[in-house]
Amino acid sequence: MRCTLRDVVSRFMLRGLEFSELPRQKSIPSRIxxxxxxxxxxxxxxxxxxxxxxxxxxxxxxxVDGLEASSESRPTIPALPQPVxxxxxxxxxxxxxxxxxxxxxxxxxxxxxDGQGTxxxxxxVRTAGCSKADLLxxxxxxxxxxxxxxxxxxxxxxxxxxxxQTLGLSDFHIMVVATDGRSPSELLRDNPAVDSALCxxxxxxxxxxxxxxxxxxxxxxxxxxxQDQPELEQTFACVAQVGTDGSAxxxxxxAMLDALSPTLNEAGGCNAGFLRDxxxxxxxxxxxEDDRHSAGEPVDWLDQVxxxxxxxxxxxxxxxxxxxxxxxxGVCRSAQDAPRLQSFxxxxxxxGSVCADDYSALFQQAAGWLAGRCADFVPPLR
Length: 382
Hints:
This protein is of the alpha/beta class. 28% of the residues lie in helices and 15% in strands.
């Protein structure tokens, strides 16, 4: 009997287990060789068998000789065949495309993209690979986030360089939203006509202004940047430093779901054109507080994000740069934790500490996840 992602997340939460503790449970030891070409992993779920793709395992990062590396709670596919300790292997119909060492794409791994960022041809048949990505950054704008926003802006140039040059993605959208603002349903009820001023007030609407209200000089009228944005790194730094005058009651997940909602992405909506069916969706949540105010539980949030991509978990990567004081190897102080955001981000990607001084190595690891998803991604037929 099989159970779903919802089942397994719910059970872990009911039992009070952190996702990062899973590898330490004695019921799931196993040993396999190389993971290249394996489409999923199998976990035990009580007396049932649960199929989880590689993207469904929680991730932690730790400092190793000055570099960021995955801990045992989120094994990374090795560049060369060698045995690693991971849960038992079984094909999964739920998710494919775990993290890849980036050289795999350049060395002709099946489904790799060519130097122009287009899927490798296969006699006219649709093949795995992607040339498009929609990158959403949800940034906490509460009082304590000044240094975190600065670290995010400083880490972005190296990340986008990997996206452009190593992964070969030639078409990407980048949008930043804050965790504050009025809900779309509230604003649109009283103001059905959407304009720029209304979008500036709306939670989940892409930002075009810096924290003082000055323009960040987007190349278009859209509320997101694209690959041809002049001075992309500087423009991102302008808009990503969202300020610190937001509410202390962070709604990170509500802001994310609003940003991806049909209401904001339909023609005429604030974020019209951002979310595309034939693009990988990469979500970064950065906050130094847990989200205790967005409606629902982490498993519900996962379901809603999946719905935005037609149920295809292989089209999504999540990165949570969050508080980790509740974890044994956490960087933040013990009272600073985020179990709900950790559970959500771990469901389709990885987590790292918001208290780290620099996020560059974490974004490098996230780029590996993006490479894995891209290598296996088959865009839907139009």
